[in-house]
Amino acid sequence: MDKIIDPTRRKFLKTSATLGAGLTIAFYLPVGAARMMAGQGAGKPFAPNAFIRIAPDDTVTVIVKHLEMGQGVNTGLPTLVAEELDVPWEKIRVESAPADAKLYNNLLWGPMQGTGGSTAMANSFDQMRRAGATARAMLIAAAADNWKVDASTLATQNGMVLHRASGRKASYGKLADKAATMPQPAEVTLKSAQDFKYIGKQFKRTDSKAKSDGSALFASDLRLPGQLTALIARPPLFGAKVKRIQADKAKAVPGVRAVVEVPRGVAVIATDFWSAKKGRDALQVEWDETGAERVSSAAQREHYLELLKQPGMVARNEGDAAKALGESTKKLEATFEFPYLAHAPMEPINCVVKLKENGCEIWAGSQMQTGDQATAAKILGIQPEQVQIHTMLAGGSFGRRANPTSDYIAEAVSVAKAVSHLNAPIRLMWTREDDIHGGYYRPMFVHAVSGGLDEQGNLVTWSQRLVGQSIVAGTAFEGGMVKDGIDMTSVEGVSNLAYKIPNLHVELHSPKLGVPVLWWRSVGHTHTAFSTEVFIDELAVAAGKDPYEFRRSLLAHQPRHIGVLELAAAKAGWGKPLAPKSGVRRGRGIAVHESFHSFTAEVAEVSVRPDGSFSVDRVVCAVDCGVAVNPDQIGAQMEGGIGFALSAALHSAITFKDGRVEQSNFNDYPLLRISEMPQVEVHIVPSQAAPTGVGEPGVPPLAPAVANALFAATGKRLRKLPFETFELRSA
Amino acid sequence: MISFFVNDKPHSIDAAPDTPLLWVLRDNLGLTGTKYSCGVALCGACTVHLNGAPVRSCMTPISAAAGQKITTIEGAKSKAVKALQDAWVKLDVPQCGYCQSGQIMSAAALLARNPHPTDADIDAALDGNLCRCATYQRIRAAVHQAARSMKG
């Protein structure tokens, strides 16, 4: 059994002391709790800490500090509480935490509340279990006091405290009042893994029903009394400014209430979406394009390819890669290309802002509440604590809502401030076109890789140079994520290449450009896993070795890589011939990658038609993410990550002509459709290691596994995403 | 004034005739289960039934709905819809959940005309419904599950 001392206890006690006895509970009540309490009649809920509230009706509300954007955090975190508190799953309710960096910070990020980097489970695993165990101990203490027995003689079962010797029992709800008066235990004992009832078992999502009957509420579904809808006309070029506004026609559209200039463009505010949209369509804005970004993709590509020939900043250096390459028996070189990518969550960016006398309220699928608070406060000239954020369900995010500039929050607050005389809550909506045009893309990258084999076919040297914009430069994350000039998010996955290679050299160029860039599900791994896992395949072929065995021999010192690699290969039937299908060339490819401290390997099977078009028929995925808290949801995240990655590999690219984005909606920025979804099998490596994330790690190995399968089927190497299938035509 | 039925209730709305049905449902009637995502019938998130047939409400002007019967996810109570919703919950299909109303409305229309769809039938019927979370594999399985449960 693990003895855990609660490091937050001091803070709890201090807080209680300042507020005085009896107020501790109220202090921890999150937004909406008063409303819930009002409906509960007599009796107060028991709130032993910031994460749990036990009501007299026995329901247990778990306060989730992370954003639910599909990844299952509203299920995973309550599972941890249910486990330690020992309550039946049907008694669990879920509520999003209010914005409060002191109580609800991401423990891996410091004093900041936010969701990302696949950290939700990793940073909550101990915290939420401890929260549950603390509550349980206080409920037991309450029963012991009531029954005048020693706490050690009591047990819990399914939301009840039991005294087996006397047959007495009481539900948690009945004990709630009393438990609230019990002292917080200094130490709690967490369950051992073999005693887990919920962790590791198949477990149902808490939100499936609401998400299947239309009742789940997203920020865009809010309808506050008097609410108005705002759309913003943004400049056609990044960095262009408003020069002249002709708003007569816009203002003449029925329903339009105001047209105002805001820092990012011109806002049209109307009674409803359609009126705002028509108003914006009728708006005429002349833009000052002096100093705006006028990039064209073709020229940018030439520039980046030129930079590949010049030395960059050194991200890793072991041995003497150049010398070793000169002495190699076989030398290989390859260039890889990756476009800008939009996140394109199904729910376009939106939020609702209501200004109040002493602050403001924001309803948003907020992924970084602390930053969003600070941004709003700065615009309004108030303190961040005066910005109340109601975190709503997000209809997908994939990194888009975790924006260090809080772009859409800033827009909405600016609009609300500009039309404060209307005294109305403002719902800011982005259209799909706004989303595709609006920036914050996964940056375009090019990589050049070279490698050398000795006479026996051993890999002796690897050099890689990358060119692409820094995501974190100029943001609050720069201090932590840029080391010696190297943006770690640009080189992650290659600067820590897992293969055992005596000579390894990695360089980076981070050119500056006016195109806003941002993390996109699995961040740097979206490109580094592709170049490294395709190139290792090329080296294997050049060495005359099986690509799976070649990887295995180079990863002998990496047990967790080996674990997923072997499991995926075994389940996929690696080495056994694929069943032939008439009219197509078939192939199987493999890739393995570590990201966000989780390990994934994927084997893809493809069928290539004579015209070069192809289908991905099956993907076998193996994942090691430490303790598997919810195996079914881990499976769901791998399935989703694979589909998300395949979408990019097959279809997605944002391109520019003279600074203008050439795509606008799902016609020219297509996403994966159901007919393109492969059969996905997910296998989990059993592990006792601390749990790590699963939201992102399913993404990186997919595209290289498919590229390697296409090579196996056709003998053609595709090194550019999205795939250009004409190269795969039969001769 | 344009009059029509939504979930068997009569409504009369004073809106511009070109207003998409989607925004009348969401902004005028507060039926927010039907979602906006692309606005040009490319993603299916706004799928509702018009006289029982699936339509993209984002491209259906309210004038075209005059006198017609519209069913949204909130009012969809057919045996097929119930079976689909049960299967969606049983298999934990949703992730972010934003597209799922549209998926279920499209799937219900499929089951109404084809009670025993194959994978290919499902793909054909749902290819216009995007899911950025890529829950497609579970959607397929859940449609099969719903079809089986209706048979039983």
UniProtKB/TrEMBL annotation, chain A:
Quote the Pfam families the UniProt record gives. Answer: MoCoBD_1, MoCoBD_2
The chain positions of domain Aldehyde oxidase/xanthine dehydrogenase a/b hammerhead read 213-291
Please provide, alphabetically and separated by semicolons, the GO molecular function terms listed in this UniProt record: oxidoreductase activity
Q: Which residues cross the membrane?
A: 12-31
| EC annotation from Swiss-Prot or TrEMBL | 1.-.-.-
The UniProt keyword set, sorted, is:
Membrane, Oxidoreductase, Transmembrane, Transmembrane helix
The EC category is: oxidoreductase
Record's superkingdom? Bacteria
Q: Which SUPFAM superfamilies match?
A: Molybdenum cofactor-binding domain
Matching entries from NCBIfam families are given as:
TAT_signal_seq
Official protein name in the record: Isoquinoline 1-oxidoreductase beta subunit
From TrEMBL, chain B:
Q: Which residues cross the membrane?
A: none
Q: What single Pfam family name could you report for this chain, choosing any that match?
A: Fer2
Single GO term (MF)? metal ion binding
The reply to whether Iron-sulfur figures as a keyword in the UniProt entry is yes
* Keywords from the named record: 2Fe-2S, Iron, Iron-sulfur, Metal-binding, Oxidoreductase
Taking every annotated instance into account, which residue ranges of this chain make up the domain 2Fe-2S ferredoxin-type?
A: 1-76
The UniProt entry, under CDD domains, shows: fer2 (cd00207)
Q: Domain of life of the organism in this record?
A: Bacteria
The protein's name: Isoquinoline 1-oxidoreductase, alpha subunit
Give the originating organism.
Sulfuricella denitrificans (strain DSM 22764 / NBRC 105220 / skB26)
